[in-house]
Write a structure and sequence with these properties.
This protein has a domain at 2-66 and 167-339: Alpha-Beta Barrel (TIM Barrel), CATH 3.20.20. 34% of the residues lie in helices and 12% in strands. The chain has helices at 2-23, 50-59, 72-77, 94-97, 100-110, 137-157, 190-203, 213-219, 226-230, 249-263, 291-306, and strands at residues 36-39, 64-66, 84-89, 119-125, 164-166, 168-170, 174-176, 184-185, 207-210, 237-238, 245-246, 271-276, 321-323. Helix 5 (100-110) crosses helix 6 and helix 6 (137-157) packs parallel to helix 7 (190-203). It is globular and about 55 Å long. The protein starts with a helix and ends in a 63-residue tail after the last strand. Belongs to the glycosyl hydrolase 17 family. One of its GO terms (biological process) is carbohydrate metabolic process.
């Protein structure tokens, strides 16, 4: 029976990948780092002013930015620039925004005064609402209603064609992610996830995921291949149910989300990476948090973005990725790593060189190895492209 299911899954995915190739041409790909974005956190007391941040972004040719609030100084500074901006509704605002009138007032105060001179392209409603060990029941209950109210208010203002509404999730919402084709959501989030996915399907908005291969390595460095998580040359892993080969963990994590959505009956929703990165410094127990590893991870990510890569499951759909983060932020709580994810120091100097101005043709390499040995099973799931 297992062999039959495996064969069926392979046939389904092979046929669908052929269909994807027919319908999606490389001619659709943009030049340059078309899909690369950056997370611009501001939890620091010594950061460049927003006006200088615009100069920095222009110098490194980054044109997609995500912020964690609706800071009016940032929104005003970005006016007239060519940067597409994603803003965030703070968690505490979810309750009030379930009221359609409150949602309209929020947009009139935080979005409409700046748009379109500030190119607001998305609104993230909260951040990782479903991912805590004990999520706030009120936030969970208010999440989708707040998104619905905001989308309706955008429609009322004629802005829904330009601004998408979604929310970032972490990989904590998955009960399984290995092998990739076994991806499924946790049972305890199934009800709200179904509502959320229905909203995405009806509005054409993407599923945003915060994905950090670094954490997998930190938690189990003896079994997780460093080359695999860094996306260095390595043997990779072949999904036993689809025969798709993954040469890096980030792509495997993204495709696990696609399979999880398919198991709930939702096809064709695009998955984008709202956060990924690697810390350049950490506490003694934060294995792998080094300047060298951070530079390699982000350099390899940038190189793949220049090639406009898709994942093995959706090879002709560019994967949109936002790197975490623009700056090292000295006021962030938690372990040392939390204050050392930035590509740049607070004054705008490089924390390390990832080659944003021009990538080298050579890459840092270490001995390839793959030592993850996990087992799972997969149901027959067919996947459609967004």
């Amino acid at each position: 029976m297992a062999a039959c299911l495996r064969k069926t899954a392979v046939i389904h995915v092979s046929v669908l990948l052929l269909i994807f190739t027919i319908h999606f041409s490389d001619n659709d790909f943009l030049q340059g780092v078309a899909c690369l974005g950056i997370n611009y956190g501001q939890v620091g007391n010594n950061l460049l002013p927003p006006e200088r941040v615009i100069d920095l972004l222009s110098a490194v040719k980054l044109r997609k930015v995500r912020i964690y609030d609706t800071n009016p100084q940032v929104l005003a500074a970005f006016a007239g620039s060519d940067v597409d901006l994603i803003v965030t509704v703070e968690n505490e605002m979810l309750g009030p925004l379930t009221d359609p009138q409150q949602a309209l007032q929020w947009l009139n105060a935080h979005v409409k005064p700046y748009f379109p001179r500030t190119r607001i392209a998305g609104i993230h409603v909260g951040n990782e609402i479903l991912d805590a060990d004990s999520p706030d029941p009120a936030l969970v209950a208010n999440l989708v209603p707040a998104m619905i109210s905001l989308h309706a208010a955008l429609s009322q203002l004629g802005l829904d064609r330009y601004i998408q509404v979604s929310t970032p999730m972490s990989l904590g919402v998955l009960a399984e992610s290995y092998p990739t084709s076994a991806g499924r959501f946790k049972l305890e989030v199934a009800d709200i996830m179904s509502q959320f996915l229905q909203f995405l399907a009806s509005t054409g908005s993407p599923f945003w995921i915060n994905a950090y291969p670094y954490f997998a390595y930190k938690d189990d460095p003896s079994r997780v291949s460093l080359d695999y998580v860094l996306a260095n040359p390595n043997k990779g892993m072949v999904d036993p149910y689809t025969n798709l080969r993954y040469d890096n963990m980030l792509y495997a994590q993204v495709d696990a989300v696609v399979f999880a959505m398919a198991r709930m009956g939702f096809q064709g929703i695009e998955v984008r990476v709202s956060e990924t990165g690697w810390p350049s410094k950490g506490d003694p127990n934060e294995v792998g948090a080094t300047v060298q590893n951070a530079a390699i991870y982000n350099r390899n990510l940038l190189r793949r973005q220049l090639e406009n890569e898709g994942t093995p499951l959706r090879p002709n759909t560019r994967l949109e990725v936002y790197v975490f983060a623009l700056f090292n932020e000295d006021m962030k709580p938690g372990p040392t790593s939390e204050r050392n994810y930035g590509l740049f120091q607070p004054d705008g100097t490089m924390a390390y060189n990832v080659g944003l101005a021009g990538l080298s043709t050579s890459s840092d390499k270490s001995d390839p190895s793959t030592s993850i040995s996990l087992t799972s099973s997969a149901d027959k799931v067919t996947i459609k492209s967004p």
